[in-house]
Amino acid sequence: MSGEELPSTDIITLTRHVLSDQFRAGAVATGDLTLLLTAIQTTSKFIATNVRKARLINLVGLAGETNVQGEEQKKLDVLSNDIMINSLRASGKTAVLVSEELEEAVIIEDKYKGNYCVVFDPLDGSSNIDAGVNIGTIFGIYRIKPGSKGTIEDVLRPGSEMVAAGYTMYGSSANLVLTTGNGVNGYTLDAALGEFILTHPDIRIPPRGKIYSFNEGNAMYFHPPVVNYLNSLKFPPSGKSPYSARYIGSMVADVHRTLLYGGIFGYPDDKKSKSGKLRLLYEAFPMAFLTEQAGGLATTGTKRILDIVPTSIHQRCPVFLGSRDDVQDVLKFYKGGGGA
Ligand code: FDP
Fold first, then answer.
1. Of 1, 172, 251, 276, which is most buried, counting CB atoms within 10 Å of its CB?
2. Distance, CA of 320 to CA of 326 (rounded, Å)
3. Claim to verify: residue 320 and residue 233 sit in the same structural domain
4. Nearest CA to ligand 1 atom 5
5. Rounded CA gap, 276 and 263, in Å?
6. Closest ligand 1 atom, CA of 249?
7. How many angstroms is it from 127 CA to the middle of ligand 1?
8. Ligand 1, residues 270, 275, 278, 283: which to mutate, most atoms within 8 A of Cβ?
9. For residue 76, is pLDDT > 90?
10. pLDDT, tens digit, for every residue of 176-235?
């Protein structure tokens, strides 16, 4: 086969990778988390397939219902939510499920009950679906508290108590990015094999980036620290280059780029949205966990996101996350001490 590249015969699939982590964990690991992650992988493959053919089989457009946030549900949102609930319940590994699409938490019946709770946004960035822009699934996983049978209290816990978190981005390829608390790895779906293959081992976010990602259409509502911080990026001291602006408006895609290229993603609270827009449990926590595990920082501007104790499952939270030095600059503006 001269000139032709031979295929690798030692491919690392997501399951193989998580299993090898489990071997390292020794006696503590039961294999339950691996099985739960297998269920999540299956849902991501299903959603990826349907996102790809959505236009052809009339899956885009409205499903004619509104979700708990008062937003119109798309057909793909409904489908993605259903597959996740069904698959996670059937895995036998979950006790409590929280979905962006459902007002109440789902408490799994005894027959299928396991030891984990999954909080998720089945299809985030849904306002982008019809335009074919990248969208994604975001998830966070808690282990139920010792002695608990699985109640809402098992998910009203700080993000620092999550045991795993990740997202799958549906774009030109499907990319699943995962942390189990031991760094961050990225896997790309090989559609022919039907497997997520390790393509981005040990993702480390650069300590400083050159990109900022905010919806500046909200600038008239922004509080002074945010306005001043953004001005410092656009009008840096002479000799320094201004930052580039990139805002897709799909959290998974904006965070994915931030993890790989560095820089900062922000959705602050402002005069109109008192707590910001993004949801704490299934948007801010998983992304903050991934960011910190990749060496970055995630803050509300005044406190570490992962330290927040949620009081309700759909609560919102201001978010700034990304490269360590960039996020530290924002914190300086919040403390009133200027910036870089
Ligand atoms: P969407 O409304 O399209 O579902 O929280 C959802 C989210 O998208 C995020 O994915 C995204 O980062 C943000 O909202 C975009 O909000 P704006 O349109 O207000 O910028």
1. 251
2. 9
3. yes
4. 278
5. 20
6. 15
7. 7
8. 278
9. no
10. 999 999 999 999 999 999 999 999 999 999 999 999 999 999 999 999 999 999 999 999
Give the CATH number, domain containing residue 189: 3.30.540.10
Query: By three-state DSSP, how is residue 323 classified?
Result: coil
Q: Whose CA is nearest to atom 1 of ligand 1?
A: 125
Examine the domain organization and report whether 50 and 191 are in the same domain: yes
Residues with CB under 6 A from ligand 1: 124-128, 215, 249-251, 254, 277-278, 283
Q: Give the global pTM.
A: 0.93
Measured CA to CA, the distance from residue 267 to residue 147 in angstroms comes to 37
Would you call 14 exposed, middle or buried from its count of C-beta atoms within 10 A (0-12, 13-18, 19+)?
buried
- Distance (angstroms) between ligand 1 centre and the Cα of 37 equals 26
Give the model confidence (pLDDT) of 267-276 as tens digits. 999 999 999 9
Q: Do residues 127 and 249 share a domain?
A: no
Please indicate, yes or no, if residue 88 is contained in any of the structural domains: yes
Closest C-alpha to ligand 1, atom 6: 125
Co-location of 34 and 177 in the same domain: yes
Rounded to the nearest whole angstrom, what is the distance from the C-alpha of residue 310 to the centroid of ligand 1? 21
State the pLDDT at residue 97.
98
Q: For ligand 1, what atom is nearest to the CA of residue 215?
A: 20
> Residue 242 falls within a domain, yes or no?
yes
- At residue 340, the pLDDT reads 46
Report CA-CA distances (Å) from 65 to 93, 104, 282: 30, 16, 21
Give the residue numbers spanning the domain of 285.
Answer: 211-335
Domain boundary among 173, 200, 227: 200
